[in-house]
Design a protein that fits this description.
Layout lengths: L1 E3 L7 H10 L4 E5 L12 E4 L17 E4 L1 H4 L3 H10 L4 E7 L18 H9 L4 E7 L4 H13 L2 E4 L5 E2 L4 H13 L7 E4 L5 E2 H12 L4 E4 L2 H10 L4 H13 L10 H6 L6 H7 L1 H4 L3
Parallel strand pairs: 1-2, 1-4, 2-3, 4-5, 5-6, 6-9, 7-11
Antiparallel strand pairs: 8-10
Protein name: Nucleotide-diphosphate-sugar epimerase
Pfam families: NAD_binding_10 (PF13460)
Length: 285
Amino acid sequence: MILVTGATGTVGRPLIDLLVSEGAVVRAVSRDPHAAGLPANIEVVRGDPSRPETIVPFLEGVTSIFLHPRAVGEAAGELLALGRERGVARVVALSAINVDDDLAEQPSRFQGDRNKEAEDAAVGSGLQWVSLRAASFAINTLRTWAPQVRVGDVVRGPYARFAEPLIHELDLAEVAARALLGADLTGQKLSLTGPQSLSHEALVAVIGEVLGRPLKYVEIPPVAVRQGMVQRGIPEPFVDALMARYARGTGPAEAVTGEVERILGRPARTYAEWVADHAAAFQSR
């Protein structure tokens, strides 16, 4: 049986579908099972992975855990220790490609992700482990740009030439499924990216090509972007870390790797494919 934390999230939800399609028995942890919207053919239990004592009974019979860094927070080590005591043999931890950067320079930490802690807990757990060091998710652009695309042909934002190899969440979920269901990736820290590093302005152009619209990216001052994000309720520490990351420019964390193709035996999905999969979210309503 595979225990999935972060089961309703960007990676956890498609991961569950993949595991079920492979015949795996899945137990999903949710703080609100009735609102989770998960498939009826899996077991959904009420618990909080950041408070491992709430899910101890559900570790019985579990052989593998998918460890989500935001869901488990600071409790990754405790959760895995409890799992090992109850016969868990394998852990696959979701981490980030910039996990070795200074913690203050990792924007996602300010949204609750504890990528470093999750990876370190997995490596030191005594279990068979795999760490998925994911590049930035392509879906982040939907949250940032879709509202602008729905109402016009201009997308405004900072640092037009900042580039990164965004990853499709389905590729990440497929690699996670492979790591949970087999042993061939054991002991590896996998740097997982999309197939091409594209700048902000290039990404917006791709959206326009897929939608059949002449979209344009217009760069605006970072201070204006920061003000707008904070006014929308986005935490200031996250905004500051994100703007600082863009200002530093492209670095090692933005380098394309071929790990997705090596593991899955096919090229990683392109950003254009991701846009096509989510085209409805960019259309005016």
